[in-house]
Amino acid sequence: MTALAGGYVQSVDWLAIAPPTIAAVAALAVLVADLFLAERNKPLLGWFATAGLALAALLLLPLRAGDRSTFCLTSDPDVCSYRADEFAVVIQFLVLGGALLTALLSMSTVHNRGSKDAGDGDTGAAGDADAGAAAEGGKLPAGEFWFLLLSSAAGAALLPASRDLATLVVALEVASLPAFALVGLRRGDRLSSEAALKFFLSSVTATAVMLMGVSFVYAATGSLHLSRIAAALGHVDPRLDTLAQAGVVLTLVGFAFKTAAVPFHFWVPDTYVGAPIPVAAYLSVIGKAVGFSGLILVTVLAFPAYADVWGPAVAVLAALTMTAGNVAALRQRPERAHSAVRLLAWSSVGQAGYLLVPIAAAGYADSSGDAAHAIGSTVAYALMYAAVNLGAFAVVALVSRTHPTGRLSDYRGLYASRPLAALALGFFLLCLAGLPPGVIGLFAKVTVFSAAVDAGLGWLAVVMAVNVVIALYYYLQWTAVLFRAPAGARAPAGAPAPAAEPTPPATPALATRAVPASLTAAIGLAAVLGVALSGAPQLVLRFASGALL
Question: Mean of the pLDDT values across residues 345-357?
């Protein structure tokens, strides 16, 4: 800082804020370039957006060296609005890495003339009634898509480094508002418009509730900085205790919506099915990273004095969320022509329940060290989930190029036509289930399970174990479909005729359409990450263990 006119002028630490800043600058550059590029050159926007995300991710490397802060109070330099500590850097790595994979996944979806080509297949289907409408599709303009994706990624990267409630809310909205537009960006598609409207209305309601909670917390403590709120809540005026408790609960509701925790999960299935597949993949990973990082910051940093309030509440939310998600996913059956994206949507709700378990455990921790260890478990699980879930969505995008309805039955015989894609999807599903060879999935679940046990939440550990068993069924069922004989294959002589199953309308063979290089790269990169981490799962825990608040 430098003295000026009896006050102080802060110097901005540009390196600390570089990752979200680079993403935001790239978004503006894409928007301006879109005005001047000819239609045939619009694919360059995608590569420019990918390069911007890669550069933002690379600028995280020098931040691993230490704790950097900026936008601090002139009266108290230790109280800052932005802190690039190890927790922020790890979550920013997850966000920017996930956005980079999403960009690769999106290249084949965003046509160079901004229209939906015959094989992008990002429609999914809620069922037979909606399959045709979803397959119709609509325009997906390149410039707007990349601008919105980069803008949302910038907000998502800003949030984990935010250290006051005002910056948290702004970052949350910067990440969310472009996501609404991304969901409804497919013009002329009824499902896309309906999904965007549901997502928008429910999110706005949750934001309004959260803002009311923030105002209550400010009224009770007189500050918006997380560290000062924590100190003030430790000895709050008894006359304001009820106001403070209401503020804590209402603030948590807003973040619970972003994490798709029950009962704030109702928007997830229809939103994922109606959105383009890359956008659904983005919401399933980056959207959750935003919600969980915000939830961790407000609970562990701002509200530790009210752990007896939010700890049990988050534990109950975890149990309800994992149960509701897995039971609903269990109902998605290949023989009933259900949607693959809808199954992944319900699966993501179940996975959100697992991610909530260590946060609940942090509320029961006896020391800050135990709480930090529990938070590390959530971060480790989120890193695993991001890689394999984006990989699963990438294979879904590949299959949807020739099967726009996106039914689970479309995956029958995938191994016969695209063996590498089938093996990759099978591996991703086994990772999500926590079965070998997906060792990283098993490792992450054991880490979360041990966090619950160490916190004395034996009942929650039992609920988690039951849900893991439930999830095994639908993950293995989908995996088995990949290796079955293709529909219409000739049966061996003398073999009984198989039971009749509903078959989708005739579509081109999977092997007849070339796979875009960017989509192949997305699947390959996710598979390499999953295999590498399954071979050395301790790398994830070691990396996540640095995410200490």
Answer: 92
- In whole angstroms, give the CA distance from residue 457 to residue 107: 45
- What is the percentage of the chain residues whose pLDDT exceeds 70? 86
Best CA proximity match to 533, nearest among 461, 454, 441 = 441
Mean pLDDT of 182-200: 83
Beta strands in 26-103 (DSSP E): 68-72, 80-84
Q: Does residue 396 contact residue 325 with C-beta atoms inside 8 Å?
A: no
Q: Which of 77-86, 140-149, 212-221, 330-339 has the lowest mean pLDDT?
A: 330-339
Residue pair 82/16 in contact by the 8 Å Cβ criterion: yes
pLDDT per position as a tens digit, 538-549: 777 777 665 555
What three-state secondary structure class fits 4? strand
Let me know if 127 is exposed, middle or buried by CB neighbors in 10 A (0-12, 13-18, 19+): middle
Intra-chain end-to-end CA distance of the chain, in Å: 25
CB 176 within 8 A of CB 200: no
CA distances from 179 to 2, 121, 145, 151, 331 (A): 40, 20, 10, 9, 28
Question: What's the pLDDT at 125?
Answer: 38
Write down the residue that tokens 């319900």 correspond to. Answer: 346
Please, are residues 167 and 158 in contact by the beta-carbon 8 Å criterion? Answer: yes
pTM score of the predicted model: 0.86
Q: What b/e sequence results for 158-187 when a residue is b if at least 16 CB atoms lie within 10 Å of its CB, and e otherwise?
A: bbbbbbbbebbbebbebbbbbbbbbbbbbe
Amino acid 498 reads: P
Decide: helix, strand or coil at residue 371.
Answer: helix
For residue 196, give both structure tokens.
Answer: 């965007």
Rounded distance, CA 283 to CA 277, Å?
Answer: 10
Among 476, 244, 492, CA closest to 343: 476
Sequence-distant (6+) residues with CB within 8 A of 122 are 109, 116, 137, 186, 275, 276, 277, 278, 279, 397, 400
Query: Residue 515: what pLDDT?
Result: 75
Helix (H) or strand (E) holding 8: strand 7-9
The alpha carbon dihedral of 20, 167, 210, 295 has a sign of positive
Q: Which two tokens stand for residue 251?
A: 């603030």
Residues 6 or more apart whose CB falls under 8 angstroms from that of 60 comprise 19, 89, 92, 93, 96
Euclidean distance between CA atoms 26 and 357, whole angstroms: 36
Segments making up each domain of the chain, as ranges: 9-72+79-487+507-545
| C-beta of residue 433 within 8 angstroms of C-beta of residue 471 | yes
124 CB-contact burial (10 Å; exposed 0-12 / middle 13-18 / buried 19+): buried
Residue type, 178: P
Pick the closest to residue 197 from 286, 174, 205 (CA basis): 205
Cα–Cα dist 393/403, whole Å: 14
Query: pLDDT for 496-522, tens place per residue?
Result: 544 444 444 444 444 446 777 888 888
Q: Which DSSP string corresponds to 432-490?
A: HHT-TT-HHHHHHHHHHHHHHHHTT-HHHHHHHHHHHHHHHHHHHHHHHHHTSPPTTPP
Both structure tokens of 221? 């403590």
